Amino acid sequence: MASTTDTAPPGAATPGTGPQVPPTPHDPASPKVVPARHYARWAAAVAVVVLVAQFVHGLATNPVWEWHVFRDYVFSETIVQAVWVTLQLTAYATVLGFLLGTVLAFMRLSRSPVLQTVAWSYIWIFRSIPMIVQLVFWFNLSALYEELGVGIPFGPVFWSVDSNSLIGTIGAAVIGLTLHQAAYAAEIVRGGVIAVDHGQLEAAAALGIPRLRQIRRIVLPQAMRAILPTAGNEIIGLLKGTSVVYVMSIGELFYQVQVIYGRNGRVIPLLLVATAWYVVLTSLLSIAQYYVERRYARGANRTPPPTPLQRARRFVRDLRAAAARRNQPVVPLKPLGDSR
């Protein structure tokens, strides 16, 4: 007869207790997982933080910066008017340059050898000549052509006007910047157009869509995704490149800064004024470029990532929700079986 006092086998459940799981013995052969320690990365981060802190400290404590002079001139009437002139030159050259560049791009893409040769020659010439040389040339156009007129080619002239009265200083600057910008804009637009799959045009032609509508409604909207990043970079470069017109004595930002520090000798703070305005204007153009690219990316990304403003709003909402949860009173749980 078996005894009732025999012990249960290992791992079996005993009365009044749960299943007993034997402890897992440590396997000396199993490797110990140790996270990687990036000492070089931490050292580089510390070095960068120290350098940035030293630079900021120098900005705040070095008297050569003369921040009081900077505050006096950064929003002065002369500087603000110069900024407005800079924006005007940038806007005119951007709009006219990209319009002409688009025409040149499609001339290069046409099947006419004459149009291809003319467009290629224009791009080659205006990309070869420095911008400052072009500006000086247009500024002295009256030395080459005293009068400009309208008439029959190689025949009589019906109407003429003096070159100096027709093309002033601002006009010469706009013409030089536009023609220079058009050469680069043409290649930017051409690169975006040839990036579109040719099958799109074949499908549109099969549907009987006119050629002009194919370009306007099918090619260009898709090409804009490839055009915009480079075009935005080119516009920012043009904004800073308008400083070259100082050789024409036009009152843009850099020229006015030169005039002011030529009078009072405060070179460093006045250059800092120009730098601050260029940084602000470039930042605004970069923000505009971001939202324009986001708009034209809707066809590829049905759910585009949130914008920085949307991320900030979501972060504030999460903080408020967490604070509201912390302020809610804690309701004690009733014990089981308590019907009250």
Task: Identify the strand order in the major beta sheet.
Answer: 1-2
The total beta strand count reads 2
Judged by helices, strands and strand pairing, the structural class is mainly alpha
> In what range is the share of β-strand residues?
under 5%
* Shape verdict: extended
Assembly type? single chain
Task: List the total number of helices.
Answer: 13
Percent in helix: 55-70%
Write the element-wise H/E pattern from the N-terminal end onward: HHHHHHEEHHHHHHH
Short description:
With 340 residues, the chain is mainly α. 66% of the residues lie in helices and 3% in strands.
Structural summary, described in words:
The protein is mostly helical. It has 13 helices and 2 strands, in the order H-H-H-H-H-H-E-E-H-H-H-H-H-H-H. It has helices at residues 39-61, 67-73, 77-109, 113-128, 131-139, 141-144, 163-166, 169-194, 198-206, 211-241, 253-264, 267-296, 308-327, and strands spanning 147-151, 157-162. A hairpin with a 5-residue loop joins strand 1 (147-151) and strand 2. The radius of gyration is 35 Å and the shape is extended.
